Amino acid sequence: MKTIMNRTSVVLTAVMVAALTFAATSQAQLGRVIQVQAAAVGDQTISGTVVPFREVTLTAQIGGRVTLVAGAEGDFFDRDEVLVAISDERLTAQRRQSLAELRSAEAAMREAQMQWGREVAAPRSRDIGQMPGMGIPSMFDQLITRPMGSVAGLGDPAIERQADLHSRVVGVDQAAARWQQARSRLDEIDSAIRDTRSVAPFSGLIMRKHVEEGDTVQPGQPLVSFGHVEFLRVEADIPARLVGRLRVGDMVRVTLDVGPTEVDARVAQIFPIADPQRHTVTVKFDLPRGVPGGPGMYADVHLPGTEVSEGVVRIPLSAIVPGGALPRVAVVEADGTVRVRMVRLGAVQRDMITVLSGLEPGEHILDNPDANVRSGERVDGITAPRTTPRFR
What we know:
This protein is α+β, with helices and mostly antiparallel strands.
């Protein structure tokens, strides 16, 4: 008798363990409970292009033959490194000529200053040898000729002295002006020589080469396009009617054509003027640092809707019950009972799908439900469910 009771206890225990195991397994297979929220309508997807954070096109400032292109597309250069060089033989010869003219002007200026100093120390108007002596000794000229000439009104020593000083000062000024002209010419040539070297304005990459070594270029001709690509942006032309939804600093979803990859981008710049032909406004979005891809790649910018439509919700694609001819979701009622319900689906966007009918905002559904889920099953613990992500 005792043996029979022991066997009965063992059987009952095994049955209870199996039941609990089955219940736990069923609970795990039912999925996670999430809350349904209304979907914003009017969402728009605008195509854009990935661009560098900063990009410049370096152009030739003088004409000549290209003697150096420092690298190829994609090569990195630090700031102030030479990217393109143009021949400067002609300018170098002009610089040597200008240096000779400068030295000549310096010598002329020193001579003018010397003559001015001599006039101050030993006035020419008092030099006996500079006065007409009519062939008689200089002593007679000094004692007789000068006083008699002054009495007769033939000369004024004070005026002659002032005129001589003024003449020397003018000579110094003219020599200084010639020196300044030669110095300016030399500075102009040095500036032109610097223009034969196109240097990197910031650290970055060569985006495009427009010339090769040996090419002859003219002033204004593009040489290389250079970009700062440590940070990337998406540039998109937004229809003017949609720009009002955006503010600088807003975050929007962007899908990059790599993977594809979805990231949050910040509105960095909204151009103040619309294109008069296409009626679009250029908007730039800052991408997170380290995103895959590079400049020139395609990107989708998802602009959020501004209104909420009654009866229209968006749920994860994973909330659709697998299998079956018609789409279904597992609705969890307030008491934890599961009700499988058919729904009418709308557009799919990434991992979310719009439900046009069959669900109401605020209801609870199972995420990742089992394909064998049935109405009448129960789910515990729906008091604090995870909500579906709100699409922006």
